[in-house]
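2024-03-11 09:14:02 INFO receiving multi-entity request
2024-03-11 09:14:02 INFO entity count = two
2024-03-11 09:14:03 INFO echoing inputs for audit
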Amino acid sequence: MSQYPDFAFEINQNEYLAEGAREVHAVVTLTATSATGGAAAPAYGAPAPGAGGEKVEVIIIDCSGSMDYPRTKMMAAKEATKVAIDTLSDGTYFAVVAGTEGARVVYPTGGHLLRADYQSRAAAKEAVSRLHANGGTAMGRWLGQAGRIFDAHPNAIKHAILLTDGKDESETPADLARAIQASIGTFTADCRGIGEDWEIAEVKKIADALLGTVGIIREPERLAEDFREMTANSMGKEVADVALRLWTPKGAVVRFVKQVNPTLADLTGKRADGGGPLIGDYPTGAWGAESREYHICVEVEPGNLNTEKLAGRVTLVAKDSAGVTALGEGKIRAIWTNEEEKTGRINGRVAHYTGQAEMAAAIEEGAAAQEAGDMPTATARLGRAMDLALESGREDTVKMLRKIAEVDPDTQRVLRAKSKSDVNKGDVMEAVLDSTKTVRTNKRTGGSGS
Amino acid sequence: MATCPDGHQTVATDYCDECGLSMGGPVQVSEPVSSAGTGGAASAYGSPGDPCPNCLIPRQAGDTFCEACGFPFDQEGSIGTGVWPGPGAGGTTGTDPVGGGDPVPGPGPVGGDPTPGPLEVDPVFVDPVTIDPVDPVGAPAATSGWIAVASADRAYYDAVVAEGEIDAAAYPFPPYCPEREFALDGDTVRIGRSGKKGSVEIDLTGPPTDPGISHLHAVLQRRPDGGWSVVDLESTNGTVLNDDTAPLPPNQAFPVEAGQRVHVGVWTTLTLIQRS
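2024-03-11 09:21:47 INFO inference complete, emitting structure
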């Protein structure tokens, strides 16, 4: 049986509420340290036995015809897949799937998975060399094929990498939705789009449901490093299915549970029964040695003045063949008081992430408005995003916004959004996707405390 | 169970399970920015009300062992390794009986007949036993001096696994299972799990919960000579005596002498002991 990582909980909140106030915000920081004591990810080219239990990795590569236009995309995809294969830890079960209007398992060919070792890696890389671009795109079928592969290893840590370059043209949105639904809870997936011809919204549906990230690769030569990083990250996972279990008191309403760091992901709609009417489980996927932060907002029945209530009890639970294991606990508290200097404060970390989330939403809405030709809305939203980026010291976001909007050279604030024909689509996509990554501290003020 | 200031019954003792009201007295004046609640290392499970890392039942003040499952709180190194399923406060279990679904597939024992009196002695062949499943334990007879000790039996479990009956990974042997004593009072002592089929005297619900025990699994019946017989009540996974491998045929009484063992479920053994 695998060892679980050790989890430390940190709760950041202002627990003081004014009389009659109901809304409680808290940022929960979860830091997992490896049970095996060492660094999680093996070095490139030197695979070591992985941490945690059995692992299965499926690499899905878009082999539609467009991957040859330009040919550098297909070449980069093959190179990156070989790098990923070399990054697998010894003993990892793995497969490579060529995705077209169908999905073909190009390695292994025997119908059951083999563990990564010198021979299997060589055979797999040889199969990858023979990949060629020809066909359509039906990502739902790719997910279905991956699901069938994973079915044979129900208790393993299961992860897929999905690479596409275009739209999901060979199936209906309903097909894709059905396939996504069938994959939820079975495996996690990180998705990448190469070039600019793919739809962020489509790929985000897959990544959001499967608790993974979406990224854009604009320069094909960058793909290999990205694949290496994703694979190394996957190899560092030690426990497959961890849920954030939230108890709230009777009469309380959970407004939201959102992951806010390292990337933004709204878990509110993924609540599952946690074993009682007051308890909900929010899936967080697999964990290795890492740290993540969650912003939780609960609305509670106000208590009397000078009383304290628990607004939320947060536990992490691992669910596997051994049952349910609690991995730690944190408490979100609420204290009603008249002291204005206590209730007036907003906890710095809560404020920081509220701002980061608003910035990401503003960029997404601004980009959509720009695409639709609605310039006033685009200007307003991108302007708001720029203000938040400047406030929080997100230089990376400021740079990206400058490519898609006209800014005042002195203040850097947005004067107007550029029109659709004046912007590079890739720049817009990059700005939207980059904003879903967050930083922990406000780089301007240097800290995240209040 | 405790009562919160608003009158709710609560299992947790730090904040009420239902309304969240603090049970800890005057409001703490703490750092307004961050409070670190740790889990997983060192003294994380040191406060009353914190869930047991194994079964999630809130810890009682002053406990060094979990009252529900026996997990030793002072063994920090074992945090995270006790992984057998327990109901806990809101915990979910993966403990479907090995046979899958409701453990008593056929018609349960028929109710209505009064509890039989002392049986005619015929250790091999007896009429099927009828027991009213809803009947609560009657007026206690004089204590017989007999007890049954329930324990998690590694040897029996290994034999079950070796027979190929279960997958050890799916149904692991529980690392922590305190022994429990049951007095054998009266003439009929039911073995199983209390619940929808009524209550049983030897209730093996746990935690830890043996996944192979039926609600009404078997019954111990007093013989006229003061000794005991065991009857399997058509349990899903059967009842095994001593070192046998084959389960007992259902609805037939088999004598069990002092010191002998009755195996039920995946890893549970009841040892009969006569105290004079």
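2024-03-11 09:21:48 INFO post-check: Chain A is about 30% helix and 30% strand.
2024-03-11 09:21:48 INFO post-check: The two ends of chain A are 43 Å apart (CA to CA).
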